[in-house]
Amino acid sequence: MSDTPMTRRDWLLSDQPASRNQARLGQFYRTWLAFRSNTLAMVGLVIIGVLVLTAILAPLIAPYDPLIGGDLRTERLLSPSLSHLMGTDEQARDIFSRLVWGSQITLVVVALVAVIATPLGILVGTVAGYFGGWVDTVLMRVTDIFLAFPRLVLALAFVAALGPGIQNAIIAIAITSWPPYARLARAETLTIRESDFINAARLQGASSARIIWGHVVPLCTSSIIIRVTLDMAGIILTAAGLGFLGLGAQPPQPEWGAMIASGRRFLIDQWWVATMPGLAIFVVSLGFNFLGDGLRDVLDPKGDR
Amino acid sequence: MGLLDVINLDVIFGEAPQQVHAVKGVSFSVREGESYGIVGESGSGKSTVLRAICGLAPVSGGAIELGGREVVSPRGRDFYKTVQMVFQDPYASLHPRHTIDRVLAEPLAIQGFDNREERIERALSDVGLGPGFRFRFPHQLSGGQRQRVAVARALILEPKVLLLDEPTSALDASIQAEVLNLLDRLRAERGLTYVMVSHDLAVVAHMCDRLLVMQHGRAVEELTRDALRARTATTDYTRQLLAASEGYKPAEPK
Asked: Which ranges carry the ABC transporter domain (chain B) (predicted)?
């Protein structure tokens, strides 16, 4: 490299990147700088970071077993104290430990729904928008059909067909959550498909698949990522709702929604049993919303870049 | 018969009730190594002719022949090795998320060229951009630099024919001259054939050996550069266009 001392920051922000990776990292770093200046977004990121760490380190953090409770005669429904930070539930299980282990379930639900629904939505939306005509009509009517499914009813149908469980709840949520992404991706595609840089790619002899994957998708992803992040809160709430109805995670799994459901019988006298998982859902949903808002400020292609 | 022949070309957009007949029976022939201009006011169909040649607009009637053979729709991959285009607006013709490197590498990958690294470096230096530009994003370039990248992208496939759709109209005057000189030099070096659309008669007079005047989708008349300079137009419309190109003149006192 050059003789002049160069900090890592200078290298990242260089106007004349010397390699593909430097250009990519530099772009990433600029985005990060913009993101970092957004306080709420950072709060969201910290919350999600804590959630991820908690899920990974659950065996180390949780002081008690989440499934097997203590002495049913003396340790049921204890109020929050130093030995039980959030109290115990009706089976003498430590609520804090259950919340910590439950974060794994929440994270798995969120991650799987994002991994299933996002690519599906992007694929359907960009293909429909790019080709137009009858392809567009067929794909968008299919999307409409899926949009018409009520989530909880579909989940009910899945549970009836496949048996209750968190996997079936995830499938049901994923199947009902991709249509908005498809519509968004289609709208973005329509605005760029006749632009000159797409025409230029056509004039190089690029195939439709190459144009969609290499040129259209990168411009759709940022708005989709924003949308997915903002929807995360809804996904968590739906999963919790399914758990609450007894259609999602099954006892004794420490799923937050199911924990609220079992705690509602004691809501008046032992408020902590239902309130603690409720607070967890609230905080994590809020975190995702902050994060999504911050990402929108940074990634929105209609911004200054 | 030339390298590129446009024979009685019709371009019609849309279906019957809202149909737009953008180009009506236009014919011209471009010889190899020639620079051919198409001029006309906005909406005269001059850009549409270019777009029809490269397959971005439908050929509704007539034919386009390249080297004596009629081109098919959709164009084959080989067609684009012979014919390339530079777009009007350099701010819209480069992908905002692709580095210059990727912009130049992609056509090579599509067409299966070898020695890609060398070709990219040479393409950049040919248009007067140093290697420092290679990994920049378009938003780190000025308009003139972007247009140079667009020219490099078009020429990296080593085409014979370059279609230029008002390549300088989005640039300011000093940059215009720079890009025009670049285009002139590249044509001389590589024996390229240009078809250039412009509404600027001065640019066309500078660049083109012959030119076609279009109005309302029809060809009005064909002029040579000498005829243009001598102002020996035969039709009223061309004379008006020539007068208009001289710019604003204060009304003569009566």
From this structure: 6-241
